[in-house]
Specification:
The chain has 274 residues and is an alpha+beta fold. The protein has two domains: 12-93 and 263-273, no CATH class; 95-260, Gcn5-related N-acetyltransferase (GNAT) (Aminopeptidase, 3-Layer(aba) Sandwich). Helix content is 33%, strand content 28%. The protein has ten helices and 13 strands. The chain has helices at 16-24, 60-66, 105-110, 114-124, 142-154, 161-170, 208-212, 215-229, 245-253, 269-273, and strands spanning 30-31, 37-43, 46-52, 74-77, 88-91, 95-100, 129-133, 175-182, 185-195, 198-206, 234-239, 257-260, 264-267. A hairpin with a 2-residue loop joins β2 and β3. The longest helix is centred in the C-terminal third of the chain and has 15 residues, at 215-229. The protein is globular and about 60 Å long. The N and C termini lie far apart (46 Å). InterPro entries: Acyl_CoA_acyltransferase (IPR016181), BioF2-like_GNAT_dom (IPR038740), PG_Glycine_Bridge_Synth (IPR050644). This is GNAT family N-acetyltransferase. Residues 117-239 form the BioF2-like acetyltransferase domain.
């Protein structure tokens, strides 16, 4: 499943499947000579480039000049803190929760917080049936409709449904929908995307019955076991936010650790020259 020929920790937004998905959505990403992908946007009529989730190369200025983009403002948002060219910081870095999958099931179970472990035991005894299938390549599939409604209700942003569906079209084997069934009904699901030797939690939904049965604990545990057995090095559970303390606890109590993100910067010739 995981392509060990690529860098082990390939960021999701630098994976070839993501670039393919953008093409399917009518966007045209651009590439630096070393292969890093850039997005382009227009904000208030101003053209901007974005280098998502990648450390800028040491010769960034030369690479941009070689493709005629050295005069275009570039937004940098590296996955982790790293040496940065002269630039203006727009936003400081935060933290994301990352779970190491290189150890054994026994090691991961021992690392669980006692309350999380008890919830997992409840889920294991609840008679839930767990299934895994690729995501249907349809922006109107029920999972993506639920995600859109949930994001609107809770006020957070995720990929638009057409982009997630296009990722499923581009790389169906890199999409993994884990569902928990109880008495013939789906009570919870989680969608993960794989890239390089990594997996990333993308979206999820749970019913009141699923919460009572700790279905998300069981789904996440089964997903970790599945990815680990197939060579994954880590599972990215997403950004930790001060606005979602309960979700933070769920992520960190499963054994994940905090990893600093690199922040957001504006790189532009006037700054680079100063």
């Amino acid at each position: 499943m995981f392509d060990e020929a690529r860098p082990v920790l390939t960021p999701l937004m630098q994976d070839p499947a993501f670039a393919h998905a953008l093409h399917l959505c009518g966007q045209r990403p651009m590439f630096l000579p070393d292969g890093l992908m850039m997005l382009h946007r227009r904000i208030a009529g101003v053209r901007l480039l974005m280098l998502p989730r990648a450390a800028p190369p040491h010769d960034l200025a030369a690479q941009l000049r070689s493709i005629g983009l050295h005069r275009t403002p570039l937004i940098l948002s590296p996955e982790t803190p790293c040496p940065m060219p002269r630039s203006l910081r727009l936003r400081k870095g935060g933290d994301r929760a990352v779970l190491d999958l290189t150890g054994s099931d026994e090691d991961r179970r021992a690392a669980l917080h006692p309350k999380w472990r008890n919830q997992l035991k409840r889920g294991e005894k609840a008679g839930l049936m767990i299934t895994r299938k690729p995501l249907p390549a349809d922006p109107d599939t029920e999972i993506l409709r639920q995600e859109l409604r949930q994001a609107q209700q809770r006020g957070y942003a995720n990929w638009p449904p057409p982009l997630t569906a296009s990722f499923a079209t581009a790389a169906p084997r890199q999409t993994h929908v884990f569902r928990a069934h109880h008495k013939g009904h789906v009570v919870a699901h989680m969608l993960f995307l794989t890239h390089g030797a990594c997996a990333t939690y993308h979206l999820g939904h749970i019913t009141d019955t699923g919460k009572a049965l700790s279905a998300h604990n069981l789904l996440l545990w089964r997903a970790c076991r599945y990815f680990a057995k197939r060579g994954a090095a880590q599972l990215d559970l997403g950004v930790l936010s001060d606005e979602t303390p309960a979700l933070n606890r769920f992520k960190l109590r499963c054994g994940a650790t905090r990893h600093a993100t690199g922040g957001t910067y504006l790189y532009w010739r006037p700054f680079a020259r100063g």
